[in-house]
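Lab notes, practical 5.
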Amino acid sequence: MRSIGLVTVLGLAGCALSKHVVVGRDGQHADGGVGGVSDDVDAGGENGVGATPGAGGTPTGGGAGRGGGAGISGSAGNTGTGGSGAFAGTPNGGSGGALGGTGGLPPECEGAVTVEANQTFEVGAEPTKPIARVTGDLVIHGSATELDALRCLERVDGSVHIVDATGLTHLNALSRLASIGGDLSIETTALTDISGLRSLTSYIDSLTIVGNEKLTTLDGLEGLPGIGPVTIENNVALQNIDGLSHVTGLVGDIQIDGNATLVNIDGLRGITMSTGKVEIYANRALVDVEGLAGMTDIPSAISLYDNDSLASIGGLRSLASVGYLNLYDNPALRDLSGLENLTVAGSISISGCERLDSIEALTGLTTLRSIGLDNLPALSGLGGLRNLSSIEKLNLSGTWLTTLDGLDQLETIGSLTISASGLTDLRSLENVQVTASL
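Output from the prediction step:
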């Protein structure tokens, strides 16, 4: 005996440039190699070798090779080797070149200071000395076009907020910044790229990219190993988020909305689970969600809605369980291919997907608490629910279904509400005993 509870029917760092020797032409000297560029280990340039003797007429050996240039935070360059002696005239070669410069920070970073700050440090009026570290938060704002005082910045212990920076088009001054202890937000700027953040390699508590009308990519964030919540919103020129491609493992909430030219979210491929909700909506050019292909479990909710060009949710093919799955107003979506591996769902709600004609991909579901199917005029059947034996709540409205075929295996239904204009056959429920008053 099967039962229904209630039924309602309603109708450059680290790149060495040194360690090469240049030999001069006859009668000339060669320069030493350029100093190595590194954080702390590369040696200065090797010594230059003096020129070979002047042949016929030039009595003097070649001039001395110059010493190697200074390494950046490296050791001193070696002395240059003198030129060879002449066949005639002065017998000695040129003297050795001077000792290479001493390694260390670039000259412009000498005297860089630490800003002790327990509150937001605002950059608008430029400080007189370059800054190497901020112990609190750093706020960059205003109409300034350059951030020279931050060219030596390597560490911010708090958060970095770049907000209402209407004059900034790039962040090249932050090319030495390696660590942020809190959040990173970039909001309402004139930035065209953020590649100046390429040295950033620390975990970020949260990432917010909002309202940057000229920003086209997130290139520059490739060094980020992990992030907490991610919000990418209303960046009308943003085409991809590939700069996040090295982020792996768990993240918090993911919200991607209002990015009119975003065609894919492939930069999220390394993420296997969101501990919060995933919301992707109002991205008019988005055609798929392949960037979610690594996700196997979303305990909270995933919502895909108002994405005009979204024709496939195949990127959800690894998803085995989800708390809430919401698909609203995706007019190009025809079926649910990609959900074949979904076995457990708390609630599924599908509405306003006017071309959706099949939910067959849901046949793997063995546990489902509730489902709502609304305003789906092209839906041809409920066969995707045929392997369910129980469900707490089913709401069906705004369809042209004539039968409820697909519900035949249900043994218990807590609540069933049907408002379908074309429904003429309820035989799939004929053996179900109603245990509550209507």
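Observations recorded by the TA: The mean pLDDT is 79. The chain has no helices and 22 strands.
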